[in-house]
Write a structure and sequence with these properties.
The chain is an all-alpha fold. The chain has a domain at about 20-64. It is built from 3 helices and no strands. It has helices at about 5-35, 40-50, 55-60. Helix 1 runs antiparallel to helix 2.
């Protein structure tokens, strides 16, 4: 069956789906920043960080 087992393929697809979700969430934050709505961008980043505490892009919000 090759390098990836069926379980490996399923895990890979789950990770890809998770990354797509995070990308969509980050787009919301960057759209707020681009439109000058900084307060809303901070709120969206905080909400994302509450749901996923180890998400590096959301952590970067505290460094700004």
């Amino acid at each position: 069956m090759g390098f990836w087992t069926r379980e490996g393929e399923e895990i890979k697809q789950d990770l890809i789906d998770l990354l797509k979700i995070f990308k969509a969430k980050l787009i919301c934050v960057t759209d707020c920043l681009d439109s000058g709505n900084n307060k809303k961008a901070v709120q969206e980043a905080d909400r994302l960080l509450k749901k996923q505490k180890d998400f590096p892009c959301a952590k970067a919000r505290f460094g700004v």
